[in-house]
């Protein structure tokens, strides 16, 4: 008989991840494999998360060498590490209190690193100024997002705070919003048009909640997760106009900005477009943009470092935001170092540059091949249709499920695409995510899997998926 | 002509303002990094400019100060104050970060063995892969075994262990889960005065009711159940008390609770149906003779099944303190005891929002709970380093108490454990009046003056809470011994001067 059964209602209302039931099944399968049970596969391929290292992509050498030298400065004496590695490590250690990566860093990040981040942003945006005081580093971009949402979501208001979020959308953001008691206002991306964002749909979503909640912000993900769309400049302009007219705070999740593969696709930041639009928009639209060391080709998810850059935010409110970051969110030093290397990589002429360039090129070639292969293979298979993956880390194809399978799933009290993924783990040793985890149009089903894998892994993934699908459809015909 | 937008905000006005923002966030204060620290950082900048000026005369005009550096004795950051990391830990972590070093014969075999084991448990054999939100399984198993060893064999289930981004993250997560209800039913959380201000900040952020219980300064900051009862009964009138937080060893007070006291608290929690949160991050930092760390869990189980099967609690630990001092790794864990499985399922949702705790911090935690053994090559160096750090802290604790108690107007309780001293300072009435004139709390006024005149940054007692009409400051005992002696002397001189000035 437990005493503490009552918990905060916001927490109760948070969606439970579909992933949990899949993780449980995967664990069972892995144990069986360990015990020698014969299966049609010898290892489980896990491409459930946007986690390149887990999927088999190797870490970049330079950042790992720098981290090792920062952790164990005796390595600075050795010739084993190239001189630019040692110089970088030395400089970063000097930026740490007491010359150790074990000390706390200042509230919003190590100042030298915030400085480098602001320089990266300025360069990326063709000279649009970026100030370190507006940059807050935290253990991952979702942590920064949660802090900003915490300020925006007013639990004492008579009408609950609402935030417009895309469908489909990265589940952590949704869960985070629910945990704060905010209302999630879904706006549907247009799948047939490659998952584009239509302003009319934003309008519809906003109107649908008139009197129901108080919309204060619009959350966009560019490049998309799971959608894979890289927004056009025009689309970004439309969104900016929309938030200005409707008086919404703009939350731009841009963590996949370095993952752009489409031949014609180009990432341009919300901040840059905002600046290009000039006053009054550039002076008034309140924007928070998020980036992370977890994504891009560096893919250091486990180190936990991300940041938010704030634009046009009320200076008094900034004080409270800073306070929030300083009280609750110290980013680990190693993660901050990874962020520094990401925004300030080896340059031509540096001893480490050739290897860095080679590794980056290899990863880029792999990913470009992967998205091409995914698009071709899946679109040639009956039962799948896949929009082009222009950017991001995932493919998000539609799957057509036989009615009998849908029925069976419902009988089991499960979402049909979760049921599909569960069977996929058991029968094909492939762990991916069901579309219901991210939101999708009624009676449509999708799957999401990470495309940041070695090429032969991707070949294997597609092989297992197509074999399984053929068998599955036959079973439920 | 202005037009109103759909959500009622007139065009031209900001969306996010002081009036529209979450009012809870406005109430969050965290003295450890508050205004005095901001001023200290500013002075450091100014000092750097002075140095700059002397190198290139005629450039940026800095402000001359009667000191050349700011000593930041405000935050429990051992490495910032010169404490060295444990060699073995850093070796393993370097190997994990850059596994090519596994070929390097300069690294000992036991370090390599640990590194391989950790990497085997990581996705893609990389510290850069996400781990499960609850933390890497084999590390949770190692933590459970450590707890069992520490607590004389009382069993610990790895499923009850949640790795976290420092102990703070776990503390806030549990509070977030337990705080519920509206109005008079709003959750009340009992916290000591003085307390570590993360708790008051979290309670403000969550809109929970803070129920303060006073520690007894006269008896070395001990906890009296009578006081707990008083605070609870008063609180029952305006909220629903559900949680009791205790920090042992204490921060800022440094007291190490007696076993009897811990039993009394557990009994009280059971009688009053309170969830117990035991913050034990300083469990290796015990210095005073006759003092011993008793884990709440151990005492709970030794009190028999009537208690051990009923009392619901969470205990917290971290890699930031003790002898490691690795604050920058953000490593930590909590162990939940007797938690309803359905509530645990809710906890799973909350931790998933963080994705996962930093993997290097998890790796470090694994080494802390699984250090070199007597038969391993790194053992003797490890033990030597560990002993040296703790002995050093013990000596500094003793020195601090001794010197402060020689100053008329400063009364210092023994620093039994943790990393801080929280002496009481007598302030002349004129100083109190002057402070009020400047709109400052008296001990803030005192500490600001100390900062401006001596370059020593402490945290005023008001940031931690104290009995009405009393004043304190919190100072860390972390600066190297010789520097600490200088700091203590300077504070002594300052105090005498200050008292004189306002007499």
UniProtKB/TrEMBL annotation, chain A:
Keywords: Aminotransferase, Pyridoxal phosphate, Transferase. It catalyses: L-alanine + 2-oxoglutarate = pyruvate + L-glutamate. Transmembrane segments: none annotated. GO terms for molecular function: L-alanine:2-oxoglutarate aminotransferase activity; pyridoxal phosphate binding. Its EC number is 2.6.1.2. Pathway: Amino-acid degradation; L-alanine degradation via transaminase pathway; pyruvate from L-alanine: step 1/1. Gene3D superfamilies: 1.10.287.1970, Aspartate Aminotransferase, domain 1, Type I PLP-dependent aspartate aminotransferase-like (Major domain). Its cofactor is pyridoxal 5'-phosphate. It is an enzyme of class 2 (transferase). One of its GO terms (biological process) is L-alanine catabolic process. InterPro entries: ALAT1/2-like, Aminotransferase_I/II_large, PyrdxlP-dep_Trfase, PyrdxlP-dep_Trfase_major, PyrdxlP-dep_Trfase_small. It comes from the Eukaryota. Pfam families: Aminotran_1_2. Residues 81-464 form the Aminotransferase class I/classII large domain. Coiled coil: none annotated. Homodimer. Belongs to the class-I pyridoxal-phosphate-dependent aminotransferase family. Alanine aminotransferase subfamily. This is alanine transaminase. It comes from Kryptolebias marmoratus (Mangrove killifish).
């Amino acid at each position: 008989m437990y005493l503490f059964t009552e918990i905060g209602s916001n927490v109760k209302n948070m969606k439970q991840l579909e992933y949990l039931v899949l993780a449980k099944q995967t664990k069972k399968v892995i144990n069986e494999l360990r015990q020698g049970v014969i299966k049609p596969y010898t290892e489980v391929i896990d491409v459930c998360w946007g986690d390149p290292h887990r999927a088999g992509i190797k870490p970049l050498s330079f950042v790992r060498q720098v981290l090792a030298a920062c952790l164990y400065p005796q390595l600075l004496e050795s010739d084993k590490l190239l001189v630019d590695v040692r110089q970088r490590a030395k400089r970063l250690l000097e930026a740490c209190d007491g010359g150790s990566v074990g000390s706390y860093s200042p509230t919003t990040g190590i100042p030298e690193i915030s400085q480098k981040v602001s320089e990266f942003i300025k360069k990326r945006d063709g000279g649009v100024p970026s100030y370190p005081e507006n940059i807050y580093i935290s253990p991952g971009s979702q942590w920064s997002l949660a802090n900003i949402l915490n300020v925006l979501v007013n639990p004492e208001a008579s009408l609950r705070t609402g935030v417009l979020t895309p469908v489909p959308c990265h589940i952590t953001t949704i869960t985070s919003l629910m945990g704060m008691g905010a209302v999630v206002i879904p706006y549907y991306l247009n799948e047939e048009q490659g998952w584009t964002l239509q302003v009319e749909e934003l309008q519809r979503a906003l109107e649908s909640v008139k009197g129901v909640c108080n919309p204060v912000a619009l959350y966009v993900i560019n490049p998309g997760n799971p959608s894979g769309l890289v927004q056009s400049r025009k689309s970004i302009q439309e969104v900016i106009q929309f938030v200005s007219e409707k008086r919404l705070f703009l939350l731009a999740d841009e963590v996949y900005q370095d993952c752009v593969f489409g031949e014609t696709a180009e990432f341009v930041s919300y901040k840059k477009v905002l600046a290009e639009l000039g006053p009054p928009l550039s002076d008034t639209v309140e924007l928070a943009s998020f980036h992370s060391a977890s994504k891009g080709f560096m893919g250091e998810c486990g180190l936990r470092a991300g940041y938010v850059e704030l634009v046009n935010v009320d200076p008094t409110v900034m004080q409270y935001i800073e306070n929030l970051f300083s009280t609750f969110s110290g980013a680990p030093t190693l993660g901050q170092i990874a962020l520094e290397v990401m925004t300030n990589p080896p340059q031509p002429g540096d001893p480490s540059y050739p290897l860095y360039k080679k590794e980056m090129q290899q990863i880029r070639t792999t990913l470009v091949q992967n998205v091409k292969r995914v698009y071709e293979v899946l679109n040639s298979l009956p039962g799948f249709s896949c929009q082009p993956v222009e950017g991001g880390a995932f493919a998000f194809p539609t799957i057509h499920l036989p009615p009998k399978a849908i029925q069976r799933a419902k009988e089991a009290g499960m979402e049909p695409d979760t049921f599909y993924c569960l069977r996929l783990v058991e029968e094909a040793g492939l762990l991916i995510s069901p579309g219901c985890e991210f939101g999708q149009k009624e009676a449509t089903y999708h799957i999401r899997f990470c495309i940041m894998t070695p090429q032969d892994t991707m070949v294997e993934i597609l092989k297992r998926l197509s074999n399984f699908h053929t068998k599955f459809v036959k079973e439920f015909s | 002509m202005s037009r109103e937008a759909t959500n009622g905000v007139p065009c031209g006005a900001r969306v996010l303002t002081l009036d529209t923002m979450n009012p809870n966030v406005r109430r969050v204060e965290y003295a450890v990094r508050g205004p005095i620290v901001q001023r200290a950082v500013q002075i450091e900048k100014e000092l750097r400019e002075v140095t700059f000026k002397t190198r290139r005369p005629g450039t940026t005009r800095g402000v001359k100060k009667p000191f050349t550096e700011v000593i930041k004795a405000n935050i429990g950051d051992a490495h910032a104050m010169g404490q060295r990391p444990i060699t073995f830990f850093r070796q393993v972590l370097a190997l994990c970060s850059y596994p090519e070093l596994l070929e390097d014969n300069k690294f000992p075999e036991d370090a390599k063995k640990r590194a391989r084991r950790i990497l085997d448990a990581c996705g893609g054999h990389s510290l850069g892969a996400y781990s499960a939100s609850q933390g890497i399984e084999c590390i949770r198993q190692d933590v459970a075994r450590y707890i069992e060893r520490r607590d004389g064999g009382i069993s610990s289930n790895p499923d009850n262990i949640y790795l976290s981004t420092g102990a703070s993250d776990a503390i806030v997560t549990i509070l977030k889960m337990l705080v519920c209800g509206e109005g008079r039913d709003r959750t009340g959380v009992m916290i000591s005065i003085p307390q570590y201000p993360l708790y008051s900040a979290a309670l403000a952020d969550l809109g929970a009711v803070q129920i303060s219980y006073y520690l007894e300064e006269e008896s070395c900051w001990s906890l009296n159940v009578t006081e707990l009862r008083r605070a609870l009964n008063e609180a029952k009138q305006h909220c629903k008390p559900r949680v009791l937080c205790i920090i042992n060893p204490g921060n800022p007070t440094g007291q190490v609770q007696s076993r009897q006291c811990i039993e009394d608290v557990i009994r009280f929690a059971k009688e009053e149906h309170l969830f117990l949160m035991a913050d034990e991050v300083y469990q290796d930092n015990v210095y005073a003779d006759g003092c011993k760390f008793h884990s709440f869990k151990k005492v709970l189980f030794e009190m028999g099944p009537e208690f051990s099967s009923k009392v619901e609690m969470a205990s917290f630990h971290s890699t930031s303190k003790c002898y490691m001092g690795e604050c920058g790794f953000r490593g930590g864990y909590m162990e939940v005891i007797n938690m309803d499985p359905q509530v645990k399922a809710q906890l799973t949702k909350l931790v998933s929002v963080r994705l996962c705790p930093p993997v290097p911090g998890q790796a470090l935690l694994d080494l802390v709970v699984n250090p070199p053994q007597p038969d391993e090559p790194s053992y003797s160096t490890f033990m030597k380093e560990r002993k040296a750090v703790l002995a050093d802290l013990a000596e500094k604790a003793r020195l601090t108490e001794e010197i402060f108690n020689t100053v008329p107007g400063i009364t210092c309780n023994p620093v039994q454990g943790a990393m801080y001293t929280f002496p009481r300072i007598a302030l002349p009435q004129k100083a109190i009046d002057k402070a009020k004139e400047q709109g400052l709390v008296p001990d803030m006024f005192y500490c600001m003056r100390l900062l401006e005149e001596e370059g020593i940054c402490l945290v005023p007692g008001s940031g931690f809470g104290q009995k009405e009409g009393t004043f304190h400051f919190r100072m860390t005992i972390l600066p190297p011994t010789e520097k600490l002696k200088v700091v203590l002397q300077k504070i002594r001189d300052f105090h005498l001067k200050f008292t004189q000035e306002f007499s």
